UniProtKB/TrEMBL annotation:
Domain spans labelled RNase H type-1: 35-108
Gene3D superfamilies the UniProt entry points to: Ribonuclease H-like superfamily/Ribonuclease H
Lineage top rank: taxon: Eukaryota
Stated name of the protein: RNase H type-1 domain-containing protein
GO molecular function, one term: nucleic acid binding
Length: 119
């Protein structure tokens, strides 16, 4: 499976949240969102997988305990990667606003957080 970060501009201002760019034909895009309550450490993750036409191919939502918030972000990415694996997609773009989580998924320990590796 080839992973590509669709936001190569982590230091840039956030994109308009209503702007979604389709992946190329033959590619699917995972969009991940998460929420986290710092008092209870309750987290939730939502994932959608779309194709080049913008059609929804799959999705999921999960609740879990996590601390800190970066773990909730990684749970969302992991859920999306599990979905594309089960569905057999091999050309995948992961869209996330977390550089730390993306680095952890790629296995780059030099810029990552050790608490993410069990995920």
């Amino acid at each position: 499976m080839r992973l590509k970060d669709d936001r190569n501009h982590f230091n840039s201002p956030p994109l308009d949240s209503h702007l979604w760019v389709n992946p190329l034909v033959g590619t699917v895009k995972i969009n991940c969102v998460n929420a986290w309550d710092k008092v209870t450490n309750a987290g939730s993750a939502g994932v959608v997988i779309k194709d080049h036409t913008g059609s929804l191919l799959d999705g999921s939502a999960h609740c879990f305990q996590s601390s800190p918030v970066v773990q909730a972000q990684c749970h969302a990415i992991r859920s999306g990667l599990e979905l594309v694996h089960v569905r057999g997609f091999t050309n995948v773009i992961v869209e996330t606003d977390s550089k730390v989580c993306f680095a952890a998924v790629q296995g780059d320990i030099s810029v990552s957080n050790w608490t993410l590796y069990p995920l």
